[in-house]
Design goal:
Blueprint: E1 7-13, H1 24-34, E2 40-41, E3 50-54, E4 60-63, E5 81-84, E6 94-97, E7 114-119, E8 122-128, H2 132-150, H3 167-171, E9 179-184, H4 186-190, H5 194-203, E10 206-214, H6 218-224, H7 234-241, E11 246-253, H8 256-269, H9 276-279, H10 285-291, E12 298-301, H11 304-314, H12 318-324, E13 326-333, H13 341-350, E14 354-361, H14 365-371, H15 381-390, E15 393-401, H16 403-411, H17 427-430, E16 441-443, H18 447-457, E17 460-467, H19 473-485, E18 489-496, H20 500-506, H21 516-523, E19 528-536, H22 538-546, H23 551-557, H24 562-566, E20 575-577, H25 581-597
Parallel strand pairs: 1-2, 1-6
Antiparallel strand pairs: 1-7, 3-4, 3-5, 7-8, 9-11, 9-12, 10-11, 13-15, 13-16, 14-15, 17-19, 17-20, 18-19
Length: 599
Amino acid sequence: MLQNKGLTVIDVYQAWCGPCTAMQPLFRKLKNETNEEKILHFVVTHTLSFYHTVDSEEELRYEGPSEACFTCAQDSPNRRRQVHTHIKSTGLKGRAEADNIVTLQSFRDKCEPVFLFSVNGKIIAKIQGANAPLVNKKVITLINEEKKIAAGEMVRPQYPDILLIELEKTRKKPERERYSIAIIKPDAVLKRKAQEIKEKITMAGFVIEAEEKTMFTEKQVRDFYSQIADQPDFEEFLSFMTTGLSNVLIIAQEKEQDQVEENETELKETSEPPTESEVKKWDSLQKYLEQQHISQFCDVEDDEANVTKFTDVFFPDFKIAKGKKLQRTLALLRPDLLEKQDDVLKVIKDEDFEILMERQIVLSEEEAKMLCKEYEKENYFEALIEKMTRSPSLALVLLRENCVQHWKELLGPRTVEKVSEYHAESLCAQFAMGNLPINQLYGSDSMEAAERDIECFFPPENTLALIKPHVTREQRAEILKLIKEEGFELTQMKDMLLTPEQVGKIYFQITKKDFYKDIVEVLSEGQSLVMVLTKWNAIVSWRRLMGPVDPEEAKLLSPDSIRARFGINILKNAVHGSTNHYSATVNSNALFEEDAGEE
């Protein structure tokens, strides 16, 4: 591709987020308006990875797609693997997947678009970001230069070298990331020390890559703690670990440069000198926990084979999820756009977003001003706030790779007045309506802003959930799987034999009913699994998942509900849940506050 004469424009992109679709209208415009096919090249560069194993000087074994690629007859035996790119020219524009091209490795794992400009095979300029006016100006300038050079009106300038690989980084062989498994034990979770422990871990220069809240099975405890299985109190420990909620963490050592930059930032923001634990880079998580006097609450596994085994058990999709870089963002359709919400939802689906949560909401004045802050200096600001606070908007939580940046690119400019040929396909242009010249959609500005926005519009709520004694261990596991799939977070959980006093606190609203004594009897037959579940609208969501109280009725009205699948009769109906916010608070406090207060 770089052998083309004249100017070639290359869109450098990541495999996980794809090319920059927001720039396509500009490239089409330039192609049509300049009509300089001999000077200006927009070539689709489809990059595929081809791996060859060199078995001898003469023999090469091809591994990869069935399409032919460039040969490597000159390869040598000591070069065991080679990556080639197969390039197809289709006449639109140049794209390069940074993941598969060694020369572009410095752009890997960057979500910001990068455009390279090549003249007669040499990269002479680079623009970072989807800055359409700047890219347009650069292309026009370079085309005019090429015309003047061809006409003999100017000498080709000496362009500075554009380094695509930082030399300091290329000298270092990348180290394979090593992980540890940490288990915050049930007593720490019950005493609500888990968050404190996680904060201490991150302060010491470690990164929590993944977290799973779970109740261990007997087999998992025996596998993880096999080194202490011969100790006399192991069976007591086994019971302790299998009757409460544990936090399982994947821990990585923070990269040195990241830690230096973070420490420098913290030192600038505070006048107090850092403590020894804040500046020391700890190589051993176990030693750090012992120094902080919290090792009794958290066990660590560093052995690579065991870490791999337990990662496969608790985090089977860890490698896939880490590579995908999934993000959440808040999207909002303003009131005027609700009549076309189906069209917007189709775009969202077509762009591979997953909608995690949605709700119609009439904003308060404070919420409206927060979302419309960018318009506060406009003369129509008050009219906008009035509209936002009188009619419903549709709030969505979206999930996707590179979610925040991709949604912002789709939105386009903040006002219709700024829509030009560069943003002709943006959502701002497609859904311009109403009497105010604003973008009818909103998106969070950053990952941090997205999390704040989501918590504001979808505030988490707690509810008490109970799995009754007649439910088998296998059925429990299925119910817990359903809970996870519905997006609930397990905030607290313990296996316990409920006393009549505790049952009275859970069912305090019906203690005078004739059938109350039957409920006490059923719950005294064995261990119940008691949980605090957390998510937005948790009380209603849990009651919907449970289904009607009578399992027979549930089978007719809600056949996929928990009670329809696992209930036996109206008393042994598998699960229980709080009816409202007050009962959820009373129930949770009754069963978990005592544990939280213990030291």
